[in-house]
Design goal:
The protein contains three helices and 58 strands. A hairpin with a 4-residue loop joins strand 51 and strand 52.
């Protein structure tokens, strides 16, 4: 499962087939726009998105979210044109006319039919390089292949691949993300290749060469070399997706006997452009593909020709004033159109995976707007997507921790429990309903639920016995109860708790729940090593060798409690040294409330007891809400390693995410905010301890921007976690706030994550000078802030 998660990440980012020069694939002068969905002015066109991060000396950037074939221009500082291209797909690496310098602000625009979009909504500011990581080449490369995939890169570096036996550079490229396919000369069986990345290669004063990858052996070509498997094709499309490719092989696509596509496979699943486009009636035997290393494979079976497109899936919720939407279930290189009242307010090109698409220039999304999306290829137009009504307020429902994605804690629909009513009459128990297990997660509420036993207001309660209850909120009568079990209950049959507040998608009747299971009751320890006994311990970490824990994310239908989808939680990231850090469920514990935002479910983790003797990490993992497919993962402490032979106590370095149960906070543009716990704060090395973190989803990455509070290393030394409290984004304001054990709250600018104001929220009344102290003396904050703004303009 870890490998599947990583491969999904690889395939979505950049796994394009590299076109060969022997076949003319000239772009048309203009993209062909369907007259039923015209582009008339900038409000119809999506501003392209420039992928972060970008570092100084970059000579290429990655841009997406535009119409295939559009003229895409890249600008520095608003007006300086530094790059231009007409990419065949709706995403591309665009070469620049000069190297970028620190502080440059990079945006892009697209032009179609004489209409030019606005600039990118979020300029990417060019920053300094972090520590250069050790690249990971391969792992599987073959004789006569001409691509070496290289992973664990730092964006904006120059990448070189060398043949160690000939002591020569055989391929180069520019990294615009973590992974890059480097085109090489023909590889030789038995030789070894190695990759290295270089920052600022043309600036001797700033040039830095990173560590080399481990050597990778070039394998003999597979025998027999099997043909690739083409996806279904749609007439008029100039792209085809091929599966079961051998990396580096030449991929040959034919319509009958005629060659229409020729390129190099960058991954097992990748895409290729074809010219002319797929015909409605291919020549016999049809659209086939073959691949060639030293020798060619046989042709594949013909691709199925489809004469229709599926409806896209528009991600929800979409907040008022959002600049972006997300779209899934698209066909590569189809044109994707966002519609409001039948009028295009966004236009881009389909991708593998989730498309992030900007709304048109000058368009403001207002509460109550109804949005849909369609995709088309030539004259074939899909049915409309699901309709999404704009708005992130509670609407009278309580569907997430602290009531909304901002985490305001406000319930504006309340009319009965006014201060006057409560003060006059008090509050009394209305009913009791017994449940199995303690309750750690916030109960949720949805009005007028069509339960199978009759319509009623719904109350949903999750317990530490891994049971979820659907109750009549007015009477307490049980409508349903669903026990959540491991997919292999014989292996892990013991419930470990539902600790994080679930989240509800009302339009789709889905309740998303994170739970864990285990194989033995003991799942924690007081001391590290039983070979060095301590009478005060009783339990030791090395006694948990057989502990087996699994985390599961499930989607229930909240009308009857039936399960609709599930996935076992997994994730991995590269460390700086090129080794993998994996999500190890038995060392993690979930507390932050789940976040449902723009079609994705986000979950987060801290450590289980005790942090001094285990290797844990802070994790944020993103899944697609429609089918729980893995999308991306972020690790807040990738290089933290704990000695385990023997186990030893150490200063906690995991940078867990717990927030006292407060949910990950969102903003209208799809960014995610949270606080981290104990670890050293060294952002250049990827250690995000005691920090305020913003994650921006970009393709299949979660890109961090970080605020480190003053004295962060003192917080680490004294167990004064910043991450003991939660975060809150202010509706209608570009501000975010949060704080922890020091009693300070930090008000930040959302765009830059720079400090606006430091606020004293709590003080040790016995000794006001004490701050940055530990568990027993500090002026701690252990909950999420609440926001209310009445007629007074202050808040």
């Amino acid at each position: 499962m870890l490998e599947r998660a990583r491969m999904a990440w690889r395939e979505i980012v950049l796994a394009a087939i590299v076109l060969l020069g022997g076949l003319k694939l000239a772009n048309a002068d203009e993209p062909q726009i369907n007259p039923r969905l015209p582009v008339k002015d900038p409000s119809n066109l999506s501003p392209p998105i420039v992928a972060p991060p970008i570092h100084e000396c970059a000579i290429a950037v990655y841009v997406y979210g535009f119409i295939p074939g559009a003229t895409v221009r890249v600008f520095a500082n608003g007006s300086e044109l530094i790059g231009q291209a007409n990419p065949d797909f709706g995403f591309a690496q665009i070469k620049l006319t000069r190297a970028l310098v620190l502080g440059d602000s990079i945006t892009a625009r697209q032009t179609v039919g004489g209409v030019t979009s606005g600039h990118s909504y979020d300029p990417v500011i060019v920053g300094p390089y972090p520590i250069l990581t050790k690249p990971v080449a391969g792992p599987d490369i073959f004789a006569c292949g001409r691509i070496v995939p290289v992973d664990n890169l730092v964006a904006s570096t120059h990448v070189e691949v060398s043949d160690l036996e000939t002591n020569s550079v055989i391929g180069t490229g520019e990294a615009t993300g973590q992974w890059e396919p480097i085109v090489t000369t023909s590889l030789v069986a038995g030789h070894h290749v190695r990759a290295v990345q270089i920052a600022c290669p043309n600036n001797l004063a700033k040039k830095v060469t990173g560590p080399s990858s481990d050597p990778v052996l070039v394998k003999p070509e597979p025998s027999p070399l099997l043909p690739p498997k083409p996806d279904d094709v749609v007439p008029g499309n100039d792209a085809i997706i091929l599966h079961k490719q051998v990396v580096g092989a030449e991929e040959l696509v034919r319509n009958g006997p005629t060659l229409i596509g020729d390129g190099l496979a960058a991954a097992e699943t990748a895409w290729q452009r074809v010219v002319p486009p797929i015909p409605a009636s291919p020549a016999p035997p049809g659209i086939t593909a073959a691949q060639k290393l030293c020798t060619p494979s046989k042709p594949s079976d013909p691709a199925h020709v489809l004469h229709e497109l599926p409806p896209p899936i528009l991600g929800a919720p979409i907040c008022e004033a959002s600049h972006y939407v997300t779209v899934d279930n698209t066909v590569l290189n189809a044109k994707v159109v966002l519609l409001r009242g039948g009028v295009p307010i966004g236009y881009g090109g389909a991708v593998l995976g989730t498309l992030k698409l900007g709304v048109g220039f000058g368009v403001t999304l207002n509460t109550g707007n109804v949005l849909t999306a369609v995709q088309y290829i030539g004259t074939i137009i899909s049915p409309p997507s699901n309709a999404v009504t704009v708005g992130c307020g509670s609407g009278g429902d309580v569907v997430t921790q602290h009531n909304d994605n901002y985490r305001t804690g406000v319930y504006p629909a309340e009319t009965t429990l006014t201060p006057a009513q409560v003060l006059a009459r008090g509050m009394h128990i209305k009913y009791k309903h017994p449940v199995d297990g303690g309750i750690a997660a916030q109960p949720l509420y949805v009005r007028r639920v069509a339960f199978s036993k009759g319509t009623a207001n719904g109350l949903f309660v999750a317990t530490c016995a891994n049971k979820v209850y659907g109750l009549d909120a007015d009477t307490g009568n049980e409508k349903w109860m669903t026990p959540l079990k491991d997919s292999d209950p014989g292996k892990r049959g013991i419930p470990r708790c539902i600790s994080s507040t679930p989240v509800i998608d009302v339009p789709n009747h889905r309740l998303y729940v994170l739970f864990s299971t285990k194989n033995q009751w003991q799942d924690g320890a007081n001391c590290p090593d039983s070979t060095h006994p301590d009478s005060s311990c009783g339990t030791y970490e090395d006694q948990l060798a057989n502990l087996d824990v699994a985390y599961w994310l499930v989607a229930l239908d909240y009308r009857d409690g039936s399960e609709k989808a599930r996935v076992r939680v997994a994730g991995s990231r590269f460390r700086t040294d090129g080794t993998l850090v994996n999500f190890v469920a038995k060392n993690q514990f979930d507390r932050p409330g789940l976040l449902l935002q723009q079609g994705s479910v986000y979950i987060a983790f801290a450590m289980r007891f005790r942090e001094e003797i285990i290797e844990y990490h802070g994790w944020v993992i993103r899944y697609r809400a429609s089918d729980l497919a893995f999308q991306s993962a972020f690790c807040s402490s990738r290089d933290a390693i704990v000695p385990t032979s023997p186990f030893t106590s150490h200063i906690a370095q995991g940078s867990g995410i717990w927030q006292g149960g407060g949910g990950l906070a969102g903003d209208p543009n799809g960014n995610v905010y949270f606080l981290t716990g104990n670890a050293h704060a060294d952002i250049a090395k990827g250690s995000f301890g005691d920090s305020f973190v913003k994650l921006t989803p970009s393709g299949s990455s979660l890109v961090p921007v970080v605020f480190v509070p003053p004295g962060a290393n003192t917080l680490e030394a004294n167990d004064a976690d910043l991450g003991s409290g939660g975060t809150l984004t202010f509706p209608g304001f570009n501000l975010v706030i949060g704080g922890g054990k020091t009693g300070f709250m930090y008000l930040l600018d959302q765009s830059t994550m720079k400090l606006v104001q430091q606020i004293t929220a709590s003080t040790n009344q016995y000794n006001p000078t004490l701050r940055d102290q530990g568990w027993d003396v500090g002026p701690h904050l252990h909950g999420s802030p609440t926001y209310w703004r009445g007629p007074d303009p202050k808040f």
